[in-house]
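hey m, so remember when u said the tokens were messed up on ur end? i reran from scratch. heres the input so u can diff it against urs
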Amino acid sequence: MRFIQTAKQIFTLPDLRKRILYAVALLFLARILAHVPLPGVDPEALRSFFSRNQIFGLLNMFSGGAMSNFSIIMMGVGPYITSSIIVQLLTMVIPSLEDLQKEGESGQQKINYWTRILAVPLGLVQSYAMLMILKSQGLVVSWDTLQLITMLISITAGSILLMWIGELISENGIGNGVSLIIALGIVAGIPATIRNTLSVLDATKIVSLIIFGLIFIGVIILIIYANEGQRQLPVSYARRARGTSNYGGVDTHLPIRVNTAGVIPIIFAMSIMVFPGVIAKYLAQARSDWLATAATWVSNVLNNNLYYGIVYFVLVLFFTFFYTGMVLKPDQIAENLQKQGGFIPGVRPGKETASFIGRVISRINLTGAVFLGLIAVLPFIVQAATKINTLAIGGTGVLIMVSVIIETMRQLQAQLLMREYENY
């Protein structure tokens, strides 16, 4: 009943209703673009290639099937995400960019501007690499220089257009536009997965299907708990006397999230795992025998679920600790607390506080890293448990969808709360 009342309340507010319909219309446009193909490819052979190859199938999932359709937005928002990650890392290591980020909204606008600019050359490079790989597999026809340039410009322009649509949704709609586009692309692949599963389903696999459903529900609950979970460190601020008045003396807490890094470590690890697989596919047709043999061996190793899963899991652990270490700096947190007159009860300010916060972050981060690692290799675990290769939970995809839904609901609640205050 509460959900129905909230839905009625949302659609009775003209401004909020306009925002939602605006976002839905742009998301619908993004799905139309995913079905606008480029010429010179065999669609059936291309879909078969992406269904057989695990690495490229993962990339196709994030593009919402646009890659298997050879669409003008086949690279999705990948170039923009890669650009955002690069700029974010540079912000952490280049002092001038770090100072720019601290300038507030104006500084963030400049950083966003350079992120968009960097997305253009990255789009060209990624588009060229993908076209060369598809050509090496015999999936696309040969083209001359002019046709290649036209295709590169079309694919890159499609990615930039998708990026622009995402930003329009963020500014004038509801939710994070880029995240919504990615989540919608993942959802778009679900019907095909169900259809493929039903085509091979028989009486002997009913139990496996029930196991899959239970695992799916359990994963969603686990992701919600992990996203919302946090450790609250108690923080007290000393009471200050100024004349006849007292200031401060507030007891609060410092929240440290279980999953501080979000889905970024999985994206980093996936990029590292995709790179050798992509190069191996390209070099498998090399004229040199030893190079072709080495590339085939690498490709076979990566196609082995056990080896692939182990390496993937370890990389996710590494990048979780790496990224969290870059974002949460115990020395900086302790210094800020000391400057503001705050302290953790029972812990001396300064180095002891930094050491205590560092230990807490490390322990919580281990839990978050193992959680993300299990989410990353979840498809392999599910396939081994259910023996159904056509139906697998993309742990990363579920994590993104649940995170996007939670974030969008928070924004809707904030909009409703803001309008309730305006009515008083």
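this time it looks ok to me. The chain is about 75% helix and 5% strand. if urs says something different then somethings off w ur setup not the seq
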